[in-house]
Amino acid sequence: MEPVGIDDSNRLHVRCSSPAWRTQARLIGAALTARVNEVLAPRSKVAGIVVQAVSSALPRIIRDRRPDIVGEDLAGQVEPVMLGAQGQELCTVAASAEAREEAARRAPEILARIRELIGEQCAITRWSPSTLLPVVVLVTSSASVTERQAVEDVLLQTWHDAVRSSASAGRSLIITIGAG
Fold first, then answer.
1. Whole-number Å distance between alpha carbons of 129 and 101
2. Ramachandran class of 60: left when φ > 0, alpha when ψ lies in -120 to 50, beta otherwise
3. Domain coordinates of the chain in residue numbers?
4. 8 A C-beta contact, residue 124 and residue 87
5. Would you state the pLDDT for residue 108?
6. Interior CA angle at 79 toward 77 and 85, to 5°?
7. Type and span of the H or E element at 27
8. Measured between alpha carbons, how far apart are the two ends of the chain, in Å?
9. Which label site among 18, 114, 120, 156 has the fewest CB atoms less than 10 Å from its CB?
């Protein structure tokens, strides 16, 4: 299971590698939401878990002609990633909240361009609101670093920088720290 992003309703979107994992994620959704909220408290809270629908491959023409489809100004900010809902829904990821909002505003025009490019066999009828690119923070450790306060200071500074960076870009932030 891979977190994809958080939507405007504070729901965590996840993508699973198989139908079995998708089913498991749906079955444990409430418990998973509670656990995520426990980890994030009191800084943040998710309203629920959305397991993304079975996806289809994105037609190559959509990737190749993205600037023509979404517009030159959004081409570097909004990326189509897959088709959901049995190939009827275009799912995208946006670099910022502003780009996501602009793409949503242009959705009818974008869908019309896609239908024009693909032709009558086009099954895409909807635009899924873009998820935002996640901010990923990788923390590594070493057995030779034994000064606890120094490690805590570095982690706190990393967390602070990541929060400031994600907020200024309008992105959701998920930081996971674990021992491996």
1. 8
2. alpha
3. 1-52, 60-132, 135-180
4. yes
5. 92
6. 140
7. helix 19-27
8. 18
9. 120
Both tokens assigned to 103:
């793409």
Residues ≥6 apart with Cβ < 8 Å to 131: 4, 5, 6, 7, 13, 91, 92, 93, 94
Across 71-93, b (16+ Cβ under 10 Å) vs e yields beebeebbbbbbbbbebebbbbb
Report the residue count for the chain. 180
* E strand segments, 7-47: 11-15
pTM attached to this predicted model: 0.51
Band of pLDDT at residue 142, cut at 50, 70 and 90: low
